[in-house]
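Why does residue order matter? Because the sequence determines the fold. Keep that principle in mind as you read this record.
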Amino acid sequence: MSRNPAWLSYAENINTWLEPPAVAAIRAELPELAEEVVRVIQQEVAEYSETLSGEYGQAIRLGTEQALRRFIGAEQDESPAAYRALGYGEHQSGRSLDALQSAYRIGARVAWRRMSHLAEGAGASVTAQQHLAEAMFAYIDQLASESVDGYAAAQLARAGDLERRRATLLAMLLATPAGDPEQLASAAAEARWPLPRRLACLAVDGEPGPLARRLSGDTLHGELDGSMCVVVPDPAGLRREVVMAGKRLGIRIGVGPTVALAEASRSLRWAGGAVELADRAGAVFAEDRLADVALRAAPEIVRALRSRALLPLSGETENSRRRLQQTLRAWMRHHGSQGAIAAELSVHPQTVRYRVRRLRELFGDALTDPDRRFELEVALRDASSD
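Structure:
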């Protein structure tokens, strides 16, 4: 690693401020000073009262002495990575940075007090001692900054690892057929996601992260087979939250039913059918639109049914076919009431009579046969999504 000019300037300045006898006096005391620094840290920082012993404690003592030697120019090999590693290790040990920051402050205080005393004994002026103090605390700030960077790197690494584990869990949870319960429990433990008794799946027309952050509970979210989804554990008040989030975020959301853990994939399938029904930003709940979701579940069959049932319209122009489909749909919905049909389509009743007469010519007995009418209703409901 290349040398850091800012760090090396401390040693260069110290050799400018202090006469050689003062620098020599400090160098001679460095091993003992390192021992004192570590001993005081153990006494004053509870988190390190036990950890700074044995081989680890010896490594800390050597590292402390090396840092002090660098400070006064007795060691020229700069290695900020060592201090980043300290910060990284604090995070790995489950501690905050508070203890390490306290240790740095205590170390600076102990080192400056002893170095100042040694410098004074070697004839250093008060001004030189002041410069020494300023340099010592600036140097310790630099070391602490490197440790903060290491701590942040550990946080990012853990977050990335946790994200990968949660992606694996999401895939296992929504697999068809359902995954092995023991393997699922193990994956959930590694992902730090307590398995719920019940859950609901959401399909999202867009990035799922913003939606997941607006929902209660520790959600899972991600991409699965090209679809964006969110899993909500033990949902409560989900309807209100999802409706508000859909409007706020301007996205389409399909909401599957709340199901047992083993049925998670079914909730997602229903959610996928529901999101296709949304024609604008907002939420569609599968259980509110079961018939439409059912149509989406078998698209090839519905297309075949639609092609056969509406075959009598194939000879019409595009505009005529569209008008006759609208009229036939309204005719079935309003049970043949010409006034209601005219009001819905915003046309004159005479126009309705003409169109209905044309429909009778084209479809004949299909308009009165119950089975054929059912097929027409399914075909026209699917055609309404065009």
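The beta strands are 198-204, 220-224, 227-233, 252-255, 259-260, 282-285.
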